[in-house]
Design brief:
single chain, alpha+beta, Alpha-Beta Plaits, SH3 type barrels, 2 domains, elongated, disordered N terminus
């Protein structure tokens, strides 16, 4: 135990791990996804160098995509100087959208939108760009007629608290 005690103290010295910076991981991910339809959704580096990278693709994400990015990060970092745990995956089908590219990916698909006024709206994304997206909503029919009507509503991203894909098992 004496080897671990600093002279004149009663507490052991702890080895402090060097933290890997998020900007380093961000750069490595961008190197690998540049020129592809892959996009970064989120990344974090937690204490103990637990790296979590969430990626997606407009066409859909494959396991091979995750493996390629994981290997690129692993081979670019030196485990001898900075040990780390690495997880590269998709954000999950039920996770709220975090980046605008996810709106592009879900064009033509159904989503649930919660506005900043806490209004819940279900519809299908029909278009999206850097500042806004359009949602096609089915309106309830009036009377006994089974005529379905739709309305297209445009939202700026700053009007949205949360958007999630709606999963249907029909």
């Amino acid at each position: 135990m004496q080897n671990y005690l600093k002279e004149g103290t009663d507490s052991p010295l702890f080895y402090l791990k060097k933290m890997i910076s998020e900007s380093t991981i961000h750069t490595l991910v961008n190197e690998k996804i540049e020129g592809t339809d892959l996009f970064l959704v989120d990344l974090s580096v937690k204490p103990g160098n637990k790296i979590v990278v969430l990626i997606d693709a407009v066409r859909g994400l494959s396991i091979d995509d995750c493996v390629k990015i994981s290997r690129h990060i692993e081979f670019s970092l030196d485990r001898e100087s900075e040990d780390f745990d690495l997880q590269v995956s998709s954000p999950g089908a039920d996770a709220p959208f975090k980046v605008r590219d996810q709106y592009k990916k879900y064009e033509g698909k159904n989503v649930e939108v919660i506005t900043t006024e806490n209004k819940v709206i279900n519809g299908r994304i029909i278009a999206s760009d850097e500042t806004k997206f359009e949602l096609e909503m089915k309106l309830a029919s009036k009377g006994n007629k089974k005529i379905a009507t739709t309305e297209i509503v445009q939202f700026n991203y700053n009007q949205i608290k949360q958007t999630k894909a709606t999963i249907s098992f029909k």
